[in-house]
Amino acid sequence: MPLIIRHLDSRFRPDVQWMSLSQSRDSKMKLRVGYELQYEFPQATPVILMLNIHFTRVSDLAMPDHIIISPSVPISGYRDGFGNWCSRIVAPAGKVRIAADAIVSDTGLPDAVAPDAYQVPVEDLPEETLVFLLASRFCDSDHLLDLAWKLFGHARPGWGRVQAICDFVYQRIAFGYEHARVTRTASEAYQEKRGVCRDYAHLAVAFCRALNIPARYCTGYLGDVGTTPPYPPGDFAAWFEAYVGGHWYTFDPRNNVPRIGRVLIARGRDAADVAITTTFGPNTLKGFRVWTDEITGEAVRPT
Q1: pLDDT attached to residue 21
Q2: pLDDT of residue 25
Q3: Distance (Å, rounded) from C-alpha 92 to C-alpha 42?
Q4: Sheet hosting strand 277-279, strand order edge to edge
Q5: Inter-residue contact 267 to 274 (CB < 8 Å)
Q6: Domains in the chain, ordered, with CATH?
Q7: What are phi and psi of 215, to 5 degrees?
Q8: Are 145 and 210 spatial neighbours (Cβ–Cβ below 8 Å)?
């Protein structure tokens, strides 16, 4: 059985001013993003990597996010069923370093907000959204149907209902890296009241699906631009997108406020679809670093 390793995370301040869709998106900033993963393998081991920036942001790359593997091994690639770019390697026995360092252009503006976005009736939803109405491995919406309608059936359908879900999930779950558990489902996160950012996203996605709102899980980079210290350790982040008003919009129940500098890596039904590394054999993660830093002054060339 494959061992799936997922490293995810990112925070909430209701006093932050939200950005509407009608506001100008002329601002520009540059982000230096990247990671360094250090593994030790007892034997040659096949690995699938989902680490490249999503194709929807490729045009924003000022410097490419090529995966560098030491010692060097052949890399092949393919797109999965959700359009994510996946890389395949056979890691040799011993110590292996997997890294990338890139520069991404960004608008510098917070996530878009559309409070008037309506809930699209199921019969009018585009076919490609329907898979994101179904229960999945970690988003067990079928276990949360009655609870979802009890908690959010009164909320305004559409954006208002999704935001009510985010507000609830933010309050329900206590964040802590010590609470991370890769087997935790959305219903278990609800019961246990603790977790990391993937658990916030899973629970919110499951509630949305139980209420007939398509929702998909996302992972990527999210730094601390626009927030106040102290800053948490660098990590990958998890959030979700909901289909309301005829468009996909970003929601982040972990932070529960629009954030600046979000860079998508992959989308799927839940974390099982977007694991950054899937290893088909035993291994030990010896080192883990992720960075998402704003570049100020002269641009710094990645090394």
Answers
A1: 34
A2: 39
A3: 9
A4: 3-5, 277-279, 45-49, 85-91, 76-79
A5: yes
A6: 29-107+278-294 (2.60.40.2250), 110-273 (3.10.620.30)
A7: -145, 135
A8: yes
Helices 197-210 and 159-172, interaxial angle, to 10°?
A: 140
* C-alpha to C-alpha distance for 36 and 18, rounded to whole angstroms: 33
Q: One-letter amino acid identity for 127?
A: E
Provide the token pair at 216: 């998909």
The rounded distance, in Å, linking the Cα atoms of 183 and 163 is 26
Whose structure tokens read 């002329």? 26
Alpha carbon distance 195, 213 (integer Å)? 24
Beta strands in 124-208 (DSSP E): 174-175, 194-195
Tens-digit pLDDT profile for residues 250-282:
999 999 999 999 999 999 999 999 999 999 999
* Coil, strand or helix at 55: helix
Radius of gyration over alpha carbons of the chain, in Å?
A: 19
Question: Which pair of structure tokens corresponds to residue 65?
Answer: 């996010």
d(CA 200, CA 110): 20
Each residue of 53-74: pLDDT tens digit? 999 999 999 988 999 999 999 9
pLDDT classification of 191: cutoffs 50, 70, 90: very high
DSSP 246-284: TEEEEE-TTT-S--S-EEEEEEESSGGGS-SEEESS--E
Amino acid at 19: M
Cα–Cα distances (Å) from 20 to 36, 85, 111, 249, in that order, read: 36, 31, 9, 12
Could you tell me the pTM of the whole model?
0.88
Q: Provide the pLDDT for residue 231.
A: 84
Q: Which helix (H) or strand (E) is 38 found in, with range? A: strand 29-41
